[in-house]
Protein: SAM-dependent methyltransferase
Amino acid sequence: MTIREELLSLLICPETGAALSGWDGVSAQGTLKTDDGRSYPVTDGIPNLLPDALRGGPADDTEVAEKRSEMEARDAQVKSYDQMLGLKLFTYYEVPLTLKALPLESSHLMLEGGCGTGRMTRTFAERVRGLLCVDFSRESLRVAKAKLPTALAEKVLFIQADLSRLPARSEVFDRVGSFGVYEHIPTPEARAGALKHLARACKMGEQGGRLALSAYRWGPPISWMSQQEGHHPGGIYFIRFTQAELKAQCGSHFTVQGATEALLYYHLIWGQKQHHG
Ligand SMILES: C[S@@+](CC[C@H](N)C(=O)[O-])C[C@H]1O[C@@H](n2cnc3c(N)ncnc32)[C@H](O)[C@@H]1O
Structure:
């Protein structure tokens, strides 16, 4: 089995958790199907495994409306995101800290939750055996995918999906990381859902499973010049957390082993899963 076939075998239906089949993991176009008749299109080699609520129809609650707003904004902002000079410089500082919090080995299967335009994806892909990259912005996924050289692209599968309804099997990833994403998930319930799913997909701590996550930090000097909760241009929701808040929220879904505020703007928090869920 190739690594892409292995990654493909880890995908499930976001609505029912049923197995998916019908696409080879390589062809640009295709369809993933469940035995009970659900189907999910694949375009440009990227399956659309969004839950029904984000695929169309009325946006009848805050979570769906905010998520659709961010999906549109992220799709529209891929170029400007990649041109942010401050973010490029920050990456040089952030990546070594992230790799310390989430050490990667060549035997690992990894999940990157909210890969965006792939700012950190290549770093991860170079170090692990296989990588599943999830984001709900199709344009971001297309850009991230196009950035990978062929040799790395073979061991990475990109899927369009919602982290609060993560369509991946339980306890299969050695490493789960999500960076700069959690603060954009618009309600406490949706954030708890995303953490629950990220932890669910991770192997148990005694099997070596580890998670790391970064999210906006609330506290001086940020709190002197910004709001704790609001919207970025284009309609992207955000909320900033104190370390105690983030530790408590992550602590409900995995055992926190460390956290740093060295990134000032972001918390970086890491740990392992110690109970099935
Ligand atoms: C600030 S960007 C960070 C991207 C990348 N991790 C990085 O550090 O450059 C946030 C990303 O999270 C994605 N995102 C936000 N909420 C999501 C959700 N519920 N499910 C999947 N992706 C989500 C957005 O589409 C966007 O690409």
Remarks:
- The radius of gyration is 18 Å.
- The longest strand covers residues 210-216.
- Residues 85-101 form the longest helix (17 residues).
